[in-house]
Fold this protein.
Amino acid sequence: MLSAEEILCSTQQVIAGLEALRGENRSLLGNLQEAMESRPSSESGGLEQEKSSIIQKSLEKIELGLSEAQVMMALSAHLGSLEAEKQKLRAQVRRLVQENQWLRDELASAQQRLQDKEQEVVTLEEQNKHLQFMFSIRKYDQDEPPLINKISMT
């Protein structure tokens, strides 16, 4: 099985051959038409017209072959550019997947830090409430005379 590069190389060779053949056929047709024009119309034979018709058909087939070969070359170039674009997009997808994973890791880390800080805030609020309670108890203790003094007074 031929590789794409070998097919392209062969197609280019065929194009060159067809262009040379087209040039030869055009030259033959031109010479034949000159010969037919230089003779009086009564002497023009059917042989020259038949040759001219055959060469015309040959030229049409050569033109068709050239057109098809050029389409193949253009298609190959287009497929090559599509493949390059596909590779570029795959690389971009890989990069985006990596970036997405990094962002997920960063989000998980930020969520963990947030949870730790929220827990720290709750702990500090509880400590603050406890300290306020202890402060209020101490305040009440200072307002009342000590219990020992009450017992000794009686």
About this structure: The helical segments are 4-38, 46-143, 147-153. The chain has a mean pLDDT of 89.
